Amino acid sequence: MYIVTVDAAKCTGCEDCVTNCPNEVFRMVDGKSDPYQSSECVFCETCLQCPEGAITIIET
Questions:
Q1: Region for 51 from its dihedrals, namely left if φ exceeds 0, alpha if ψ lies in -120 to 50, beta otherwise
Q2: Strand 32-34 to 55-59 pairing
């Protein structure tokens, strides 16, 4: 299982993670990415290509 976090201070709301995540882990809330379905993460690393480096994934 993985825990996905987004540093809201770094997130610019580009929506790359929302668009590219194959498991729909992310949604946009108030112009920022929200990993509301972190439990669906399969560590494909697509979101780690965030241009701002705002996303972190930790294996539990």
A1: alpha
A2: unpaired
Separate counts of helices (H) and strands (E) for the chain? 1, 4
Radius of gyration, CA atoms only, the chain: 10
Range 2-59 has CATH code 3.30.70.20: yes
Q: pTM higher than 0.85, yes or no?
A: yes
pLDDT in tens, the chain (60 residues): 999 999 999 999 999 999 999 999 999 999 999 999 999 999 999 999 999 999 999 999
Q: How far apart are CA 41 and CA 27, in angstroms?
A: 13
> How far, in Å, are 7, 27, 50 from residue 47 at the CA level?
13, 12, 6
